[in-house]
Amino acid sequence: MSSVQVAVVTGSNKGIGLAIVRALCKQFPGDVYLTSRDPGRGQAAVAELQQEGLRPLFHQLDIDDLQSIRALRDFLKEKYGGINVLVNNAGIAFKVNDTAPFAVQAEVTLKTNFFATRNVCTELLPLMKPYGRVVNVSSMVSRSALAGCSQELQEKFRSDTITEEELVQLMTKFVEDAKKGVHKKEGWPDTAYGVSKIGVTVLSRIQARLLNEKRKGDHILLNACCPGWVRTDMAGPKAPKSPEEGAETPVYLALLPSNADAPHGQFVSDKTVKPW
Ligand code: NAP
User: Fold this and answer.
1) Does the keyword NADP apply (predicted)?
2) Residue 58's domain is classified under what CATH number?
3) Each residue's pLDDT tens digit in the chain (276 positions)?
4) Can you tell me the distance from the alpha carbon of 200 to that of 207, in angstroms, rounded to the nearest whole number?
5) How many domains does the chain have?
6) Strand pairing partners for 135?
7) Cis check: omega of the bond before 263, within 30 degrees of 0
């Protein structure tokens, strides 16, 4: 088994994920895995970074596919005995002018952004080594979507005692309410992406709490973050930040020094903890 440190970034064949891998290749003292659901797109991204003199490694990962997640888990366990840095970056968003019905957008968006990200966490968090760093890429949109929820939902999502099971039930209810056409009446905002990112932020708060309870002495730090509004295929060419600028906060959280005990369980934007 290798004693080399290892960092893994999901959805990193392009956009912010690729920029995170580029930065980690320069700053992280170990192996850095660029992952992609499509091996062809992944290998092309690896080749692009190699042209720049960087040496990322590649592993296939489709976060929507539990077998793919488990194959990566088994590979990392076998080769490295665990993980030092995990960045959950993979995500999707329907374009504003997409004509797909809201119920479809809700189901598809929640499937990847919340349920698949949770599956990655379920499989990979037990592998986190002491002093490990976990970064869940959420969005400022999670905060505006939270503000658009009913008071009752806001209280649940801000609760310090909400469980992962309760969160899963709420995310499932949102999809069901969208299918029945009653999501607004039930207190949800009119944004599937926003609700999916509420899920990512709240999941991060819950997971950080569980780490405090179960692995206090291991000094693992886990946070959610917003990269800012970034020029990628997802956000379009008008966004103010380059992918490299978008990578700054996730990379800062991924490389928090071993003597840091904060931030942990926070929502971080521009390297600053924001209120939830
Ligand atoms: P992007 O350019 O569209 O890249 C998204 C990446 O995620 C791609 O590599 C994509 O792979 C991958 N992906 C999607 N579904 C996947 C799956 N099932 N399994 C594995 N990989 C998957 O988007 P981005 O702007 O870089 O976004 C990265 C993250 O930042 C997302 O979580 C997004 O929600 C968040 N974010 C972005 C902004 C912004 O302004 N751009 C703002 C706030 C938050 P394919 O190439 O195969 O599709």
Assistant:
1) yes
2) 3.40.50.720
3) 789 999 999 999 999 999 999 999 999 999 999 999 999 999 999 999 999 999 999 999 999 999 999 999 999 999 999 999 999 999 999 999 999 999 999 999 999 999 999 999 999 999 999 999 999 999 999 999 999 999 999 999 999 999 999 999 999 999 999 999 999 999 999 999 999 999 999 999 999 999 999 999 999 999 999 999 999 999 999 999 999 999 999 999 999 999 999 999 999 999 999 999
4) 10
5) 1
6) 87, 223
7) yes
Q: Domain containing 129: what range?
A: 6-95+113-140+196-271
Q: Is 80 a catalytic residue?
A: no
Within a domain: 66: yes
Q: Which of 33, 80, 193, 252 is catalytic?
A: 193
Residue 87 maps to a domain: yes
Q: From ligand 1's centre to the CA of 230, what distance in Å?
A: 11
Q: Does residue 170 form part of some domain?
A: no
Residue with CA at minimum distance from ligand 1 atom 34: 91
CB atoms within 10 A of CB 57: 16
Which residue puts its alpha carbon closest to atom 44 of ligand 1? 139
- For residue 88, the ligand 1 atom closest to its alpha carbon is 32
Q: For residues 12 and 21, is the Cβ–Cβ distance under 8 A?
A: yes
Å from CA of 241 to ligand 1 middle: 15
Per DSSP, which regions of 227-266 are E strands? none
**In-domain check, residue 157:** no
Pocket of ligand 1 (CB under 6 A): 10-11, 13-17, 36-38, 41, 61-64, 89-93, 112, 116, 137, 139, 226-227, 229-230, 232-235, 239
Say what the pTM is: 0.99
Beta bridge partners of 124: none
